[in-house]
Amino acid sequence: MRLSDFVVADRAVVPLGATELPAAARTLCECLVAAGAVHNPTALGERIESERPEDIVAMGDRAFLLHYRTDAVREIAVAIGTARAPICRELGDEGAQCARIVLLIAAPPRMAARYLQLVGSLARVLSRPETVQEVLAAPDARALAALPAFRDAELPEQLLVRDIMTERPRFITPEMYARDAAREMVRWRVAALPVVDAEQRVIGILGERDLLRHLLTNYLGDASGMKTPLPTPRTVRDVMARQVLCVSPEQPLAEVASLMANKDVDRVPVVREGKLVGFLTRGDIVRKLIGS
Q1: Which residue has the higher pLDDT, 125 or 284?
Q2: What percent of the chain is helix, strand and coil (3-state, nearest 5)?
Q3: 97: exposed, middle or buried (Cβ count in 10 Å: 0-12, 13-18, 19+)
Q4: Which CATH superfamily does the domain covering 162-290 fall into?
Q5: Distance separating alpha carbons of residues 252 and 113, to the nearest angstrom
Q6: Where are the domains of the chain?
Q7: 25 and 102 Cβ atoms separated by less than 8 Å
């Protein structure tokens, strides 16, 4: 299977008239709807309007990748657009990201494997400056879809978890106070951390949801405003989730991505013989595949 099977003229917009990323996303969504690729336009539109940070990845200054895992489509749908002037995404104090190419991919959860192959192939093609220039120079949608770069690009070979995972990940211990673990998560800017024992074996995971339940119960009180008194500070062991989906570094990435989608899990510890050797998140998969 080649990229030209997904990048087709009736799902391309040249030029994109938008100057901001949300407007570009809406235009590409409308393009997919008009092409009959979306069976639930309302659901996809609402997902796009929510503007979740994890759904948007910048491929350097070359392109934006908007990716949505949604049942609004029955098959993977790709829309691509190019703009005459850079389209920007504001990042607050960090400034802005800008690019002239915008890709929108909508994929049903059951097709996680094919989705990963597609993203990897698009990333490889758009990593070449000459291809980016050819895409931007295409005068219309038909010419863009007919570019040899898409026709010649085959979807990549199967990747393994070890090819993508974060090695030597950060972790916490079960004896650490929950409040200290929360501070570490904020400082490291992570949404969850694996919990390991003295032998580096994974015994749990502490995520934002676990901390939120802890805060609601012990600091914010219930609906009546009553707080539950605590005799001693809670530890990570008291708060962490004990049922953890772990994967092996030798497992096919597509298989694990599909498992994460079906189980609605955003992150998994990677273990070898029970010991922590890596960490993998849904965002890692996308970011590392496109090299940004």
Answers
A1: 125
A2: 40, 25, 30
A3: buried
A4: CBS-domain (3.10.580.10)
A5: 9
A6: 3-154, 162-290
A7: yes
